[in-house]
Amino acid sequence: MNQLTSDETDQDLPGEAALPGALPDDLRAELIAFRRDMHMHPELGNQEYRATAAVKRRLERAGLEPRVLASGTGLICDIGTWDGVRPMLALRGDMDALPIPDTKTDVPYRSTVPDRAHACGHDVHTTVVLGAGLVLADLDRQGLLPHPVRLIFQPAEEVLPGGAALAIESGALEGVGRIIALHCDPKVEAGKIGLRIGPITSACDRLEVALDGPGGHTARPHLTTDLVTALARVATDVPAVLARRVDSRSGLALTWGRITSGHAANVIPQHGELSGTVRCLDLVAWHDAPDLVHAAIDEVASLHHAKSQITYVRGVPPVVNEKGATELLRDAQTARRGSYAIEDTEQSLGGEDFSWYLEQVPGAMARLGVKEPGDIGRYDLHRGDFDVDERAIQVGVELFTGAALMDRHRL
């Protein structure tokens, strides 16, 4: 992705802010600087101490009273006073980075931490919620905020089963009537958002498999368990078996991310490991997935006389966007930038622990366009060279502030 210069970053994208609460120029510049600082100092899940402290300081400067979660990372902050009756709208942003190297070489804000990078846009998500909070706090002081709003800065989204559970246990949803979020999408141009009613992400579980055998000489595989072949068969055959045991419309997919075994070319190893993820578009199939996966692995491993040990870690269910919350986001974006700034989006096989909030209250997640308009390159999340058109920060802030200013009776 081509990085914008500082002058280009300050240029507005097409659209008009028809609601109060547009992002002031000085705050826009501050938020870009905040995002870049966070990008330079990525922290893994449940280690977001620096980011937590930075957000807390800025909210307190605005006269707010953020509360750090019990784990020491992540925050909750209310704007306006909840009277116990009027439901709050919650804005959620995640804070953690990924354990991969930052491979960008042409920007001054690349990661300063080895093998750590904000390659999923969580620095943008945090910055957007912070910016929206600052704008809404100013509107609240003017008496222009129709209902209280809660900011949720969540840790550990990338750590299954996700930090959302911790936030919920800490009272993040108490008094909340609806919750909204966004996620960077490098396929959507900055200035636009993607929306979808119903499932927008998939379920995501983690799978660890260990295979064992007696080992031996590669000259005599018939006298032992050919463990590397067994690993290869599990890696290739199990996904194929699963594809024939579930309805193809469920989107159940097992994909391996790691396979390891052996130390020498002429030694059949005694131990090998595979790890990967199980993703599923359908909630019912997701509930059946652990038993199906266990059975398929055991069958293939037994065929090759390998003993299997399976660790299946439940992750997150699909994010299912509620119609009312999705329309709230649609109306807010239309008021800010026009209906042409909204596009339909497809259901992704990516997992998102925002789904745990939606098990408790209605809500929706939007796709935030971060691709530079006109750029024909193909980009994806979880890559070391991932970056964004920083004008998307303004779009996200004004989307959230617009939603908060909509008719309170819709909450």
List keywords for this structure.
411 residues; alpha/beta; Aminopeptidase; Alpha-Beta Plaits; 2 domains; eight-stranded mixed sheet; four-stranded antiparallel sheet; 16 strands; elongated
Strand residues, percent: 15-25%
Number of helical segments? 10
Structural category is alpha/beta
> What is the CATH-assigned architecture of the largest domain?
3-Layer(aba) Sandwich
Enumerate the strands of the largest sheet in spatial order, edge to edge or round the barrel.
1-2-4-3-5-16-6-15
Query: What is the CATH homologous superfamily assignment of the largest domain?
Result: Zn peptidases
The amount of helix comes to: 25-40%
Structure commentary:
It is built from ten helices and 16 strands. Helix content is 32%, strand content 23%. It starts with 5 loop residues before the first helix and ends in a 6-residue tail after the last helix. It is an alpha/beta fold. The chain has two domains: 6-201 and 318-410, Aminopeptidase (3-Layer(aba) Sandwich), CATH 3.40.630; 203-316, Alpha-Beta Plaits. The strands form four sheets. The protein has an eight-stranded mixed beta sheet. The chain has a four-stranded antiparallel beta sheet with strand order 10-12-8-13, covered by helices on one side. A two-stranded antiparallel sheet has the order 7-14.
